[in-house]
Amino acid sequence: MHQVFTSWSGGKDCCLACYRASISGLKVRYLANMVTEDGKRSWTHGLSSELLQVQSQAIGIPLVQRRTTRDNYEAEFKSMLRAFRQEGVDGGVFGDIDFNEHRQWIDRVCQEVDVIPHLPLWGESQDKIMRDFIDLGFEAVVVAAKADLFGEEILGRKVDLDFIKHLEELRETKEITPCGEAGEYHTLVVDGPLFNQRLEILETNKVLREGHWFLEILKSDLRSK
């Protein structure tokens, strides 16, 4: 059985990719997450590193976090992959869908450290991915959104069929991809078939930072399913 890591943001796409990898027979050993130099926030979604650790606990797969600046991001990412290789992890799972520039980066970086990239969502219709995620029983909430596309009321909204409908209405006048593949919005997965426990969000604060709305999750807990 091939052992892999999943490149992890805490959001729906990487979570669905991780789930598909698991049911396809790959053994997911680690969730890999890059955090800011002070170790406080995830680079991708601005979530607190502690919250992602709680989410990892809910899933039951260890989270490996590596501190980095924007300038040495690639070097640190490769260093983390080399450490995984030493433990017998020879593949990486990525939740990318159709952003070619990032796909090229993944392919190059993985080749340079002798890791096989797996992209279970690549090239699939974003509408299908959204529906598959919901149909499988995953639950996610919106934790970040571009302020020029969404108001603060989008924060904390559940990703469900009503949310898909809301996005479809917005897409008539705004450039928004269904999965937010261009960074229009980001999510946090709180439950689903990959989870052993449910992540409960207990206390939040809404913050506007650098043109993005962020849901700061101040308090969370795990609940048995």
N-to-C order of helices and strands: EHEHEHEHEHEHEEE
**Strand line-up of the largest beta sheet:** 3-2-1-4-5
Binned strand content: 25-35%
Name the CATH homologous superfamily of the largest domain: HUPs
User: What is the architecture of the largest domain at the second tier of CATH?
Assistant: 3-Layer(aba) Sandwich
User: What fold name stands as the CATH topology of the largest domain?
Assistant: Rossmann fold
Overall shape: globular
How many distinct domains?
A: 2
The residue fraction in helices comes out at 25-40%
Please compute the radius of gyration using only Cα atoms.
17 Å
Text of the CATH class of the largest domain: Alpha Beta
Task: Report the end-to-end length measured between terminal Cα atoms.
Answer: 29 Å
Provide mean pLDDT, rounded. Answer: 95
Helix count from the secondary structure assignment = 6
Query: How many strand units?
Result: 9
Which descriptors apply to this entry?
putative n-type atp pyrophosphatase, domain 2, four-stranded antiparallel beta sheet, 2 domains, Rossmann fold, five-stranded parallel beta sheet, 29% strand, 225 residues, 6 helices, alpha/beta
